[in-house]
Amino acid sequence: MSRLIDLLNIGGICPRCDQPHAQCTCSKNPPAAGKAAARPKGDGIVRVGRETKGRRGKGVTIISGLPLSAEELRELATQLKNRCGTGGTVKEDCIEIQGDHRETAILELQRLGYQVKRTGG
């Protein structure tokens, strides 16, 4: 009965350690926190290209090779989406911008101080 009452309270019970969230120790130290912070640096060149594969012929601008954390990558993606006036997302350490906005993305990234190469045809 007390478990049901704990579940109804704000915070609930941690599914891993079966303790109320206020007393939980496993949620304060997630197991993969150290691995998520480390990111590969690459060669320092940001690559901007265009892909249509798997998108029923619709093209997207792919920006890869950015040496940024996940949060910084999302912030840059938002900035680029606003600059291009379109939507997009962050997937697998790459920024995807809807449409062919390679020139706009290259100019904006160079303005921010990145070394940029255009990939593809």
The CATH topology annotation of the largest domain reads as Translation Initiation Factor Eif1
The average pLDDT value, as a whole number, equals 79
What is the overall shape?
elongated
Name the CATH superfamily assignment of the largest domain: SUI1-like domain
Order the strands across the largest sheet as they lie in space: 3-4-2-1-5
Q: Per CATH, which architecture of the largest domain?
A: 2-Layer Sandwich
What percent of residues are in strands? 15-25%
Helix coverage percent: 25-40%
- Number of self-contained structural domains: 2
CATH class annotation of the largest domain? Alpha Beta
Structural class, judged by helices and strands? alpha+beta
In angstroms, what separates the terminal alpha carbons? 65 Å
Count of DSSP-assigned helices: 4
Gyration radius (Cα, Å) is 21 Å
Number of strands: 5
Helix and strand pattern: HHEEHEEHE
Itemize the secondary structure elements and their pairings.
Layout: H1 2-8, H2 33-37, E1 45-51, E2 60-64, H3 70-84, E3 88-91, E4 94-98, H4 102-111, E5 115-118
Parallel strand pairs: 1-5
Antiparallel strand pairs: 1-2, 2-4, 3-4
In short:
By secondary structure, the chain is α+β, with helices and mostly antiparallel strands. The chain folds into two domains: 1-38, no CATH class; 39-118, 2-Layer Sandwich (Translation Initiation Factor Eif1), CATH 3.30.780. The chain has four helices and five strands; from the N terminus they run H-H-E-E-H-E-E-H-E.
